[in-house]
Amino acid sequence: MQAESRKSTTLVAYVILGAVILAGLALRTWNVRFDGGLNSHPDERSTTCFYAPTIGWPSSVDEFLDPRRSPLNPLWDRQNDRRRSFTYGHFPLYLGILTGEVLSDLAKPAGLLPLPARSIEMMERANTACEGLAVAGRLMMALLDTLTVFLLFLLGRRLYGSYGGILAATLYAFTAQAVQLSHFFAMDPASTTFVVLAVYGGVLMVQERSWRGALLAGIGAGLAVSSKFSALPVLAVPLTASFIAGWRG
User: pTM for the whole thing?
Assistant: First the structure.
């Protein structure tokens, strides 16, 4: 009887979580082209109009390893041979560009589906400067921020049980600032996702003393800093978790 009750409670919790995640995703992907291509966010405009279009794949290993020649380096202007003041995270930049390329490649097969012509057009232009890359980046930020909702559930469940996790996920899913930031190709949502991943990994390190916790904490901390340098303090998470786990014996 108790086992059946426990299963029923777990099922209800997952149904609620699914609804929260879907609602969070809907809020973050709703009207991603809200500004009509004006690129109203200055950081987004700088990224999508000036830096992202210059990024490409190196033609050789030597070019890849040379920061002044590599087309993957947003910090160097190869045409004018001078340093550029790119102050944003590299990882979200690459991820947004990759998303644009994937969407553009999928536009042709997507045209065979009963999708709105406007959506197909947006996909075709997803790898173009300014508006195209902005939409692609916004979609990626929306997905990453939705992942944050799920990670907060996992973190809350670890600390306070399933319904504690659902409460944490729900509060974040409907937070106005989070929804707003996920509508821009800015680095904040990506940084937030990986900070939460690092904290979750740190909790696993303390509770389980497991390698998977250390792996998640390390990946989360590294990607958080590569998304936004101001996330540097998150490096304290795996270090502190290691100290606590060792101190507990």
Answer: 0.92
Q: What is the 3-state secondary structure (H, E, C) of 125-140?
A: CCCCCCHHHHHHHHHH
Can you name the residues that pair with 83 across neighbouring β-strands?
A: 76
Structure tokens at 49: 């109009």
What is the CA 235 to chain-centroid distance, rounded? 18
pLDDT in tens, 131-188: 999 999 999 999 999 999 999 999 999 999 999 999 999 999 999 999 999 999 999 9
Q: Residue 237 is inside which H or E element, if any?
A: helix 236-248
pLDDT of 10 over the 90 cut:
no
Residue 182 · residue 30 · CB < 8 Å: no
* DSSP secondary structure, 37-69, as one string: T---SHHHHHIIIIIGGG----SSHHHHH-TTT
**φ and ψ at 139, to 5 degrees?**
-65, -40
Q: How far is CA 73 from CA 82, 136, 163, 179, in A?
A: 12, 20, 44, 30
